[in-house]
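Worked example

This section walks through a single chain of length 112. The input is the sequence exactly as stored; nothing has been trimmed or padded.
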Amino acid sequence: MVRKIKAKLVLQLRAEGLSGRAIAASQQISRNSVAAVLEAADAAKLGWDDVADLPDGEVYSLLFPGRGEHESVFAEPDWAEVHREIPIRQTEVRHPGWLVERLGREEKENPA
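Given that input, the structure is written out below as tokens.
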């Protein structure tokens, strides 16, 4: 599972004078991840003083815009339809063949 880098903490530790290697070792993250945060912060001209009052997620978004946002490849179900279908499915279990009869009635009422 991929986790977000705690960018705010990395900036705080740098402000306290720790090296990139020391930050990586103390937080158990890769040196490359620490370097990416520090490079992004330098490019955005952000330091600990600028982000001290911001939440972690917002700091991450400032440094890496668009990263960490995922769109699902699956369509969101129509939950109202799902909840309407639940009683129908329960009836099918109690009365086998009920769905076939229902579909036959619907077909007669609404021919295509």
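What to look for: Residues 79-109 form one domain.
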